[in-house]
Amino acid sequence: MDGCLRQAEVRPTVYTGLMEMQVLPKVKALRYILPLREGGSLPILAEADNGKKYVVKMRGAGQGVLSLVAEILSGEIARSLGLHVPELVLIDLDAAFGRNEPDAEIQDLFKKSVGWNVGMEFVPEATIFDAAAGDKATAEEASRTVWLDAFTMNVDRTPKNANLLRQKNCMWLIDHGASLYFHHDWPHASDKVGSKFTKSGEHILLRWATENDDAAQFAHEKLTVDELSRIVGLVPDEYLVSEAGEATVQERRAAYLDFFTARLDQSKSFVEEIARVRAEVL
Questions:
Q1: Per-residue pLDDT of the chain (282 residues; tens, 9 = 90+)
Q2: Which of 52, 76, 167, 209 could lock onto 143 through a cystine, CB 3.0 to 4.6 A?
Q3: Residues 70 and 45 in one domain
Q4: Three-state SS for 71?
Q5: Contact between residue 142 and residue 166 where contact means Cβ atoms under 8 Å apart
Q6: Residue 33: partners with Cβ closer than 8 Å, 6 or more residues away
Q7: Would 6 be classed as within a structural domain?
Q8: Helix axes 249-265, 225-232, angle to 10 degrees
Q9: What gap in Å lies between CA 99 and CA 116, rounded to an integer?
């Protein structure tokens, strides 16, 4: 997985009393560039006050803040597994942002998304991963990605919706908003812990995923309780506030951590499913 032009920056650290916690960088959106109509969530491209361009996923779109939570958690889990994910930031949209956009739908989306949204650093000179055009993945990155998507129950990353970018010799994982669907139904989330995740058979990288046992072992080594706790801690408090008030922010963080640790303990079920569907498909 060498050859990537850029790596994610080190997370800033804040101190609360005696506690040390990493946080996502915060930037302010200064210039609206254009809408990106390829995805259902209607992200936009914007320039921030740090001079970088970001693909912005907005809290007012689609599944709301839960899709932003999924972007952060699944994206950072991927990064922990040594996979390449563009830098994630929290990006502030003020009430005047994009006021000259003529599309009423997009203007309405801006109004619903004032405040902190999630930005993914724009990857220049990148193309959508296309196996039909000859794009390939290494056994290591394919196996780890297939494992990741089964772990996070990511229903995308199929030939119809690759959510992968190819930039010279680097493959970037993008758009994780459709993962972690268990958090749309917390009362039944525990039912999904041991899910085999049968959609692994549709994964765009399945043909190259020949090192699944190695990927599983690597994931167990990397995704310690401390590491998963760090990742869960990156989600802003305001994204975890329950509208119905059935859980506090602390309880919701604990619920995510409990789910991840339990799913890791029961990962044999989806690892075996990956091996089964790969044998059938290939």
A1: 445 655 444 556 554 444 456 789 999 999 999 999 766 678 999 999 999 999 999 999 988 999 999 999 999 999 999 999 999 999 999 999 988 899 999 999 999 999 999 999 999 999 999 999 999 999 999 999 999 999 999 999 999 999 999 998 899 999 999 999 999 999 999 999 999 999 999 999 999 999 999 999 999 999 999 999 999 999 999 999 876 678 999 999 999 999 999 999 999 999 999 999 999 987
A2: 209
A3: yes
A4: helix
A5: no
A6: 44, 45, 46, 47, 53
A7: no
A8: 140
A9: 17
Longest dimension (CA), the chain: 55
Sort strands 88-93 and 26-35 into parallel, antiparallel or unpaired. Answer: parallel
Q: Which two tokens stand for residue 2?
A: 């060498």
Residues 137 and 276 in one domain: yes
**Phi, psi at 86, each rounded to 5°:** -55, 150
82: tokens are: 């040594």
* Domain around 243: 131-170+182-281
Residue type, 108: D
Query: Residue 267 is encoded by which pair of tokens?
Result: 């990962």
Q: How many domains does the chain have?
A: 2
The whole-angstrom separation of Cα 172 and Cα 21 is 26
Q: What percent of the chain is predicted at pLDDT more than 70? A: 91
Q: Quick one: the chain helix, strand, coil %, rounded to 5?
A: 40, 20, 40
> Residue 145 is inside which H or E element, if any?
helix 139-151
Query: Are residues 147 and 276 located together in one domain of the fold?
Result: yes
Count of beta carbons in the 10 Å neighbourhood of residue 179: 27
List, in order, residues 6 or more apart from 221 with CB less than 8 Å away: none
Collapse the DSSP code of 143 into the 3-class scheme (helix H, G, I; strand E, B; otherwise coil) and give the result: helix
